[in-house]
């Protein structure tokens, strides 16, 4: 009996020692894991610190607060439209011509002016200057830009012919009238596809002012559209066929212009 008790005690001691050893190993493992986490955390914080210092150097020594502020400013900066641009060239695309020059009554979506020009010197001493212009934004218009970029010399004599997708607005009409009064050697003839806001009294008065200053204002008939197609469009062998209501719309606008200029 005593031997049995002794053996059971020994077994118990072995079990206890194994359990204690297991606990100690568990503690060691948990301690190692904790040390590992701490080291990783330290490493992460050190890396963040180094990256922060690197960014600081790249930003010319700015503090973290200043960098954050600059980033916020960059995020919330307003988007500015590009500056006004005049596009010039000798020939336009067929799509531009067919859409922008179509003499419809309601010109929805046609928010730019296309201007085809021909400049002749007196006596035909030089080759006529030909090309087209289109405006992109509302800061200025193609009519004004023509005299700034294409014909800046006010002292020479010129015969100028325009084919425009729409008649001049109030501002352009008044500016052109003043220019014609100042440049007595310049003669201007404008063929319009459509009349711009012709039912507004201020527009009507501006058109009359322009004509009184010496400008010849005409509406484009089907043969004028054909001429623009042949001269100013990059047609690549494609022939021009007037749209169905081209003649009717010409008659419509011609009557309106005649009433304005009575």
Automatic annotation (TrEMBL):
GO biological process, one term: cytidine to uridine editing
InterPro entries assigned: APOBEC_Cyt_Deaminase, CMP_dCMP_dom, Cytidine_deaminase-like
Cofactor section: Zn(2+)
Domain spans labelled CMP/dCMP-type deaminase: 92-210
One term of GO molecular function: RNA binding
One matching Pfam family: APOBEC2
Bias type Basic and acidic residues, positions: 13-57
GO cellular component, one term: cytoplasm
Domain of life: Eukaryota
UniProt-annotated stretches for the region Disordered: 1-75
Keywords assigned: Hydrolase, Metal-binding
Family in the record: Belongs to the cytidine and deoxycytidylate deaminase family.
This protein's name: CMP/dCMP-type deaminase domain-containing protein
Species this protein is from: Takifugu bimaculatus
Lineage: Eukaryota, Metazoa, Chordata, Craniata, Vertebrata
